[in-house]
């Protein structure tokens, strides 16, 4: 029997703000960061999880992960991994810890990190990538890991069992197809708001040459700039490539439609037009900008907000995120909701590690849940993959099926120590060379 004998939680930050990679209307200077968790076992593999953040505040999540680790039932690893539904409830519904949520913010993301690490461990023990582990679980086992609390007015355990049971039909063929053809990706690398027009146009052309059929531009700082960038991007990519836009929550509800409509119907989707909590606001914007479609979800804090967005007919694409919610357990709930309401899931990725972690859910979704690929595409941003032991691979605009056992969260130990904040060698060098003048803890 295996025991968890420790948890290493590290504040890892990459100095991406120096190049304005990742810049948008709200996140003007992110340092892509990870509150990084290693669950250490006494024998066999360790489990890795992480929470993505934009820099400052990463230390809060690090502390929250320690609190979440302390909530783990004192059981052998095999017992924990055999009852991940119960473990998830122990972390998420703890009678004291839940006060600083409930089910939102740093506490919830911390629970997610622990659950991601446990699933990583489970997949590694099974010798399978997470998506395939999930695809090979029985419908009953899958229902057990999902927390249906506050969902049952939209979807019940019985309906979920029906969806998973239906998903067994043709599953082997879909798994084989995923391994052979991968899954469609789209790219945001061209469209960061801090990039010059020339850089954006060059990268947009490169994206098309690389086989992507959908690109995304950040918008929302200036309507004139957005109209010009949209025109330049369209000229660069030609008529057949879809162009989505992403406002990263910048607009007031009553202002959003005028801005979006100024960009015309050439926009494939508008992402995060307003506050991620504003369900009715999203529904109103969606009505006012039709036929342009609404996408949201990277900052949707739990399955209950997704439930409301679906019930209110407030979105056309659900953008799940791998580290915002309570781990694979809650993302399976999100996939179930999307399947029930007939909405495609187009995951959010980028950041650090988000591509590596989130692809598993789309692969699993096709294998067993929605069993569909139409209008479904996974975000890809080509930053920081070199730090991961099993990085994602995108070939000709398609994510290749992850093959390494686990969930993809494990980073190289050298990368973790070099970019540990604030004392890692990478940060020391930036300081001594004068590229950064001060850091928060100086
Ligand atoms: Mg976004």
From TrEMBL:
GO terms for biological process: carbohydrate catabolic process. This is L-fuconate dehydratase. It holds the Pfam family MR_MLE_C. Its EC number is 4.2.1.68. It is an enzyme of class 4 (lyase). GO terms for molecular function: L-fuconate dehydratase activity; magnesium ion binding. SMART domains: MR_MLE (SM00922). Residues 197-292 form the Mandelate racemase/muconate lactonizing enzyme C-terminal domain. It catalyses: L-fuconate = 2-dehydro-3-deoxy-L-fuconate + H2O. Keywords: Lyase, Magnesium, Metal-binding. Its cofactor is Mg(2+). It comes from uncultured Propionibacteriaceae bacterium.
């Amino acid at each position: 029997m295996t025991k968890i004998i420790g948890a290493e939680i590290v504040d890892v930050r990459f100095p991406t703000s120096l190049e304005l990679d990742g810049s948008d209307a709200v996140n003007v200077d992110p340092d892509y960061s990870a509150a990084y968790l290693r669950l250490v076992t006494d024998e066999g593999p360790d489990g890795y999880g992480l929470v993505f953040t934009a820099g400052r505040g990463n230390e809060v999540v690090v502390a929250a992960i320690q609190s979440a680790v302390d909530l783990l039932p004192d059981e052998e690893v095999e017992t924990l991994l055999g009852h991940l539904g119960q473990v998830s409830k122990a972390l998420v519904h703890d009678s004291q810890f839940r006060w600083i949520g409930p089910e939102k913010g740093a506490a919830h993301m911390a629970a997610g990190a622990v659950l991601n690490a446990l699933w990583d461990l489970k997949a590694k023990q099974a010798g399978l990538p997470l998506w395939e582990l999930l695809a090979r679980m029985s419908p009953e086992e899958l229902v057990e890991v999902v927390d249906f609390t506050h969902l049952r007015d939209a979807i019940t355990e019985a309906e979920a069992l029906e969806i998973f049971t239906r998903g067994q039909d043709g599953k082997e063929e879909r798994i084989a197809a995923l391994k052979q053809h991968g899954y469609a990706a789209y790219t945001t690398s061209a469209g960061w708001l801090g990039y010059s027009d020339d850089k954006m146009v060059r990268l947009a052309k490169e994206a098309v040459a690389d086989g992507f059929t959908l690109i995304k531009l950040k918008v929302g700082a200036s309507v004139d700039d957005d109209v010009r960038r949209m025109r330049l991007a369209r000229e660069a990519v030609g008529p057949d490539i879809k162009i989505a836009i992403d406002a990263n929550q910048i607009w007031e509800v009553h202002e959003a439609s005028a801005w979006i409509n100024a960009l015309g119907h050439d926009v494939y989707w508008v992402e995060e037009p307003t506050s991620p909590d504003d369900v009715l606001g999203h529904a109103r914007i969606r009505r006012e900008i039709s036929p342009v479609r609404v996408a949201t979800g990277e900052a949707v804090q739990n399955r209950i907000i997704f439930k409301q967005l679906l019930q209110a007919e407030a979105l056309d694409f659900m953008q799940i995120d791998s580290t915002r919610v309570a781990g694979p357990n809650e993302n399976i709930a999100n996939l179930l909701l999307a399947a029930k309401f007939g909405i495609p899931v187009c995951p959010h990725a980028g950041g650090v590690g988000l591509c590596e972690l989130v692809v598993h859910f789309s692969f699993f979704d096709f294998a067993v849940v929605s069993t569909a690929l139409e209008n479904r595409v996974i975000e890809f941003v080509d930053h920081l993959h070199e730090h991961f032991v099993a990085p994602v691979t995108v070939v000709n605009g398609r994510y290749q099926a992850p093959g390494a056992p686990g969930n993809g969260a494990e980073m190289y130990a050298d990368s973790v120590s070099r970019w540990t904040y604030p004392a890692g060698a990478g940060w020391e060098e930036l300081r001594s060379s004068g590229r950064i003048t001060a850091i928060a803890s100086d």
